[in-house]
Structures are given as structure tokens and as C-alpha cells.
Amino acid sequence: MKFFLDSAKMDEIQKAYELFRIDGITTNPRHIELSGKPFYSVIKEIYTWAEKQGFKSWEDFPISVEVNPHFNKAQDMIDMGKSLADMSKLFVIKLPCTYAGIEAAHKLEEMDIRTNLTLVFSVAQSLYAAHAGSLFVSPFVGWKEANGEDTRDYIEGIVETYANSGSQTQVLVAALRSGAQIAHAFRSGADAVTCGLAVYEESMLHPFTDKGLNIFTNAWDGTDTSTK
Ligand code: E4P
Predict the structure, then answer these.
(1) How far is the CA of 174 from the centre of ligand 1 (A)?
(2) Does residue 227 fall inside a structural domain?
(3) Does 71 reside within a domain?
(4) Does residue 6 have its Cβ closer than 6 Å to ligand 1?
(5) Are 49 and 17 in contact (CB under 8 A)?
(6) Is residue 174 lining ligand 1, measured as CB closer than 6 Å?
(7) Whose CA is nearest to atom 12 of ligand 1?
(8) How far is the CA of 208 from the centre of ligand 1 (A)?
(9) Is the pLDDT of residue 228 over 90?
(10) pLDDT tens digits, residue range 64-86?
(11) Pocket lining: 138 vs ligand 1, CB cutoff 6 Å
């Protein structure tokens, strides 16, 4: 069960690591833009921070970095993937689930550069990520839910299909918006989830925990707790 943080903001990464000991980071061009920093300086900041925590490779702490979304040729994605992989052993190359992205995934995996197939919205699409031997497949939940689609069958379908076929690709359920969605992903057998810090923070709480703590605090105060 792995919890990744979907962010490129250092303050969120630091907080999520301290609070929840997140297992890795996923970024995308939108998160990079929201960091307010240039692409190469923010990804350097992230891997430098992770290396300071003692992580040495993607096996310890994967950091997914997406290739330039303008690219529509596999070779461009491969070239950028190779140069990112040269920058840090922690990087996993995020590729869109397009013809070019799948072709690039096959070739990068053949070079032992690990990939994450992103923008996946169907069980059928997920099969090509598994066949390419990608490290991760990232099926998006929140975007489909916002489109009025039920996503439970879709996530269960990916997990079941991967299990039936013996795929080694890890199912990284992405764009989660609630604790219920996180719980469903793991209940379905997903390997990992990724979402923003606010979603983790909110899903960690329950009003009965506060109510219970209040009851127990009053009980403590009504008890003689002095030592002999
Ligand atoms: C996944 O890897 C994506 O970065 C991510 O979950 C995108 O969705 P969001 O930014 O809308 O949550």
C-alpha cells in the first residue's frame, strides 16, 4: 500500500512526508506550473530533497516527471525520458497513453528506464501500459467522476485484469478526491494512490475521533491521575 503525493510544491512535499511518510511523488505539467518555478529547477529541487532524505533510486522513492505534452513523436519522448533519467535515478518517466507514448514506453523500458503511463481512462488503455512493462499505470478517477462516470468497475477491472494476466505493472490510482475513493482503490487491490495533500489531510479526520477525544479528555480530568 503506497501513498504518493501529487504535487510539485516543496512545502507540501515536506509536510506530506513528515505527516504521512509518503512513498513517492507524482508531478504533471499543471503541478509544475502551480509551483511557480521553472520546470528544470523545480524537478531538481524535488530530487535533491528526496536524495537528502536518503533515497537513492526509483525503487526507494519514485518521482514521476511527465515529458513535454507537446510531443507527439515517440523519439522526442524517448530523448527527453533519457535525459531526465540521466538527471536522477529517482525519476520515473510519465508518458501519455497515446500511440507515441506507448511506443516510447516500450523502448524506454527496454533501456531499463522506468515509465508511468498517465491519462488512462479505460481498462482497455491500461492493457497497453501493462504490455509495455511500465512500472506504473495511472488511471484517473476524479476526472471521470466529474464527468458523471462511475469509476468503481473501471478500477476493479484494471486490478482484476492485471492480476489475471500476471502483469508486473503497478496500479497507481490517480486524481483522487476523497477518502472513500482512496479506500476503494486499495480495497480493489490497487498498489498505490496519488492525490493532493488536502485530500489526505481531510480523509484522515473523522468527527467521532474529535468527539471521542473530548469525552476521554473530560474523563481524564474527572479522574485522580496524581502519582503516589
Ligand atoms: C496523476 O499522476 C496526475 O498527476 C494527477 O492525479 C492529475 O490529476 P489532478 O491534478 O486533477 O488531481
Answers:
(1) 6
(2) no
(3) yes
(4) yes
(5) no
(6) yes
(7) 175
(8) 30
(9) no
(10) 999 999 999 999 999 999 999 99
(11) yes
The number of folded domains in the chain is 1
Assess whether the C-beta atom of 32 lies below 6 angstroms from ligand 1.
no
Q: Residue 54, by phi and psi: left (phi above 0), alpha (psi -120 to 50) or beta?
A: left
User: Over the stretch 114-172, which tens digit does the pLDDT of each residue have?
Assistant: 999 999 999 999 999 999 999 999 999 999 999 999 999 999 999 999 999 999 999 99
For residue 188, give its domain range: 2-221
Q: Which residues are identified as catalytic?
A: 94
Residue 165 lies in a domain: yes
Ligand 1, from 121, 194, 200: best to mutate by most atoms within 8 Å of Cβ?
194
pTM value surpassing 0.70:
yes
Residue with cell 519522448: 77
Ligand 1 center to residue 194 CA distance, Å?
A: 8
Is residue 84 assigned to a domain? yes
* Residue 17 CB neighbour total at 10 angstroms: 17
- Ligand 1, atom 11, lies closest to the CA of 175
Residues above pLDDT 90, as percent of the chain:
99
Whichever domain contains 144, its CATH number is: 3.20.20.70
